[in-house]
Amino acid sequence: MKKIIIKISISLLLAGLISLCMSPLSCKLTPEGIKLITGDYKSPELQKVFLNKNNNLEVSFSKKINLLTYSIEPHIESSYSVVEESEKLCKLKLELFSELSPGSKYSLLGMVKDEIGNTLTFSVPFYGINNSVPELEIVELHSQNGKYSLNGNPVLLTEYVVIKAKSSGNLAGLVFCSAYDGEKKDYLFPSVKIKEGETIVLHLRSNEDGCINETGDNLDESTAGFSKPGVRDLWDENNVARLGDKIDVVLIKNSYDDSILDGIMYASSDNLDWSKELMYTYAQKLVESGIWKSTSVLEAVKTDSLSVTKCMVKTGSGNSGDSWRIGVCKENAAKL
Question: Is this prediction's pTM over 0.85?
């Protein structure tokens, strides 16, 4: 009878331990038996991936981890270390032994585990840093879309921006942003080596044949309407309206560090304030970067006389709307 009672007691104890292992407490089977573990039992969380300019990749986790395995695709030779910076921050640091192609996509794949044994398998993208960012200047912007007659023929003129390269470099990782359109419609420039003095035309619609991105040395490949020989034509894969017709704040930024390369604020006289919060945010960025002197909509380029056949043209070197005028598109460098 005593043996039966002992067996029942052991069975109940095991059942209780198994129930505990299914509860918010945690458990682990060891050679000595089942070990109860209290505290945080969640898997590590991957918080951030950062590639610095020294070609070192840092991956932040929410707790102390051990690296089980990792690889980089396409393959890059590397070494690693794990550094615990606090109870809630542990970094996996990888030193990459090869230069990355600016703007090219890479993937870090791996598996880590915490002290309890919870594992996390991950695959995260990162991009090669552009260490040769050129100095760029927006010199012309056409914000409307429509048809007009040229020599008796109907012509479709869409939104575009003309950019002058004030120094040589690479466009990889640079972004054209419109506050009117919102961040989801940002245009990411491809990896393109440009020379000082080049003219770049970013067409914000590509709704006809011949919209060829001129990413090499041949600047005469694009055959779509308003492509121009000797000018580097780039095309956004988009066929709907872009930019605010008469009010917007646009800028070119470096996606790596969010530094602003150039931008323009424009609005018609009947606007006493920015119509979207993001417009004010971008205006602040332009002022903080020294590109514009005031966030006020009253200091923007005046667009009252803007139409399908007219665009904004930079005529001065100042940092306000006074440095721009409204001109006929066919009189300017990019078109016709």
Answer: no
What is the per-residue pLDDT for 5? 42
Q: What percent of the chain has pLDDT over 70?
A: 85
Task: Give the span between the Cα atoms of 119 and 87, in whole angstroms.
Answer: 17
Quickly state the pLDDT bin for 41 (edges 50, 70, 90).
low
End-to-end CA distance of the chain: 104
> CA–CA separation, 206 vs 227, rounded Å?
11
Tokens 């420039």 -> residue:
189
- What does the alpha-carbon distance between residue 310 and residue 306 come to, in Å, rounded to a whole number? 6
Backbone conformation region of residue 120, classed left if phi is above 0, alpha if psi is from -120 to 50, else beta: beta
CA-to-CA distance for 120 and 118, rounded, in angstroms? 7
Question: Which amino acid appears at position 227 of this protein?
Answer: S
By C-alpha distance, which of 111, 119, 129, 110 is closest to 55?
A: 129
The rounded distance, in Å, linking the Cα atoms of 176 and 166 is 17
pLDDT digits (tens, 9 = 90+) for 130-179: 989 999 999 999 999 887 776 777 777 889 999 999 999 999 999 999 99
Nearest to 246 by CA among 305, 203, 163: 305
For residue 278, the tally of other CB atoms under 10 A from its CB is: 18
Q: Which two tokens stand for residue 45?
A: 């969380």
Q: Determine the distance from the C-alpha atom of residue 261 to the mean position of all C-alpha atoms in its chain, rounded to a whole number.
A: 15
Radius of gyration of the chain (CA): 29
Ramachandran category for residue 33: left, alpha or beta (phi over 0 → left; psi -120 to 50 → alpha): left
Instruction: Of 226-230, 248-252, 283-287, 301-305, give the lowest mean pLDDT range.
Output: 226-230
Tokens of 212: 């060829």
Alpha carbon distance 168, 173 (integer Å): 15
Q: For residues 305 and 308, what is the distance between their CA atoms, to the nearest angstrom?
A: 10
Enumerate residues 6+ apart whose C-beta is below 8 A from 244: 143, 178, 179, 180, 275
| pLDDT greater at residue 189 or residue 224 | 189
